[in-house]
Amino acid sequence: MNRHTYRQVLGHFATGVVIVTAATVPGPVGLSINSFTAVSLEPPLVGFFPAVTSRSWPAIEQVGAFCVNMLGVDQEPLAHRFAGAVADRFAGVGWRPAPMSTAPVLDGVIAWIDCALESVSPAGDHLFVTGRVTAAGLRAENDPLVFAHGRYRRLAPDGWGGPDGSGFADG
Ligand SMILES: Cc1cc2nc3c(=O)[nH]c(=O)nc-3n(C[C@H](O)[C@H](O)[C@H](O)COP(=O)(O)O)c2cc1C
C-alpha cells in the first residue's frame, strides 16, 4: 500500500482534539492528541494512542493518572502549542487541578475527563493507552474543535446540507 494514500485516507476521518495532561513532580505536562476515543461505558474507560517517541508519555505513565481536555472551536492555538517545541507549554495558560489526578484542566475547554491509568499496550509505532474515568465534567458551552484533512475545522451550523442549502434529506 502506498504510504501517501494511507495517510490521505486516514485524514478523511474527522476527529476532535484533546490535550492530555498530568501533574508530574517537576510540573505539569501535556500533549495534543486526536486519537482519543470512548472505549467502555461499564466500566468507564477511554483511550488514546501516544507515539512511542512521545516525550511526555513516560512522565504521564509514571504518574499513573491523567486528564483529557476536550478543546473548543476557539482553542486551535492551544492545540498548536501543545504539539510544538515551546520551552514551557503551560506558560501563560490558565488551569486548575482536576479533582482526582490533580492534572491540569485547561481554561476554556468544553469538557474534561479525569482518569487513572488502566492499561498500556504496544500498537506499532504508537501505544494504546486506556484510562479508567474517575471524574468528568462540562465547562464551556461551545462547539468542539474538529481536525480533518490535516487541518483544524469548524462544524457547520445545524441544517447546512450543501452549498445550495437544499440538504440531503430523503425525498
Ligand atoms: C491535532 C493534533 C493531533 C495529534 N494527535 C496525536 C496523537 O494522537 N498521538 C500522538 O502521539 N501525537 C499526536 N499529535 C502530535 C503531538 O502532539 C506532538 O508530537 C507533541 O510534540 C508530542 O509531545 P511530547 O513529545 O511532549 O509527548 C497530535 C498533534 C496535533 C496538532
From TrEMBL:
It holds the Pfam family Flavin_Reduct. Residues 10-154 form the Flavin reductase like domain. The keyword Phosphoprotein does not apply. This is Flavin reductase family protein. Belongs to the non-flavoprotein flavin reductase family. Keywords: Oxidoreductase. PANTHER family: FLAVIN REDUCTASE, FLAVIN-DEPENDENT MONOOXYGENASE, REDUCTASE SUBUNIT HSAB. InterPro entries: Flavin_Rdtase-like_dom (IPR002563), NADH-dep_flavin_reductase (IPR050268), Split_barrel_FMN-bd (IPR012349). It comes from Cryptosporangium minutisporangium.
